[in-house]
Amino acid sequence: MANARGASETRRAIMRSAADLFAELGYSNTSLRAVAADAGCDPALIAHYFASKEDLYSAVVEETVRPAEAIREAMERGDPDAAEWLMRHAVADWNDPVQQRRILGVLRSAADLPAARERLSQSLLPREVADSGADEVKVWLISSLFIGVNTSRRMGLLDPGLAEDDEEMVRALAPVVAAFLTPQVAGGARASS
What we know:
- There is one protein chain.
- By secondary structure, this protein is mainly α.
- The model is unreliable at 184-193 (pLDDT under 50).
- The protein has helices at 2-25, 32-39, 43-49, 53-64, 67-77, 82-95, 97-112, 114-124, 127-131, 136-154, 160-163, 166-181, 183-192.
- The protein is 81% helix and 0% strand.
- The N and C termini lie far apart (62 Å).
């Protein structure tokens, strides 16, 4: 039992260090030796848990970028408050400094490396979400909205009053998200165009 707990803690330490280094240095400039040094473990342990640097990166992305499950849950709720619930979920992630740093690191790596971009794309619509019957276009669009707003917010492209006011952010974006979550609203909007 102690060995399993130690193994689990070692894997978590490797994941934390990798996430931090990918965020700070990007995928290309992060070495497995640097991850091992930061995690305080032997580099061979990384190979024990992850087949390659790409596999480690994939695990970090899977743990860091996870909007599809929340979007699917909001779609399944089918209630008028689902969009607001989803926006609050997103804003909570955006406000977590560790999570924010890791999200931006994943985006930075995806901008530089085709394999990282492909992994990010897969995390935005994992197979289990696609297989669930969720409307893939809507999941993609909501995910893209979240990435765009979050990135604009962190780059200082949004009005500072809006960027720092979570409630205003939720109020402003919830109707847009609701248009994607609620088939009647989205259909009505298309019909009147």
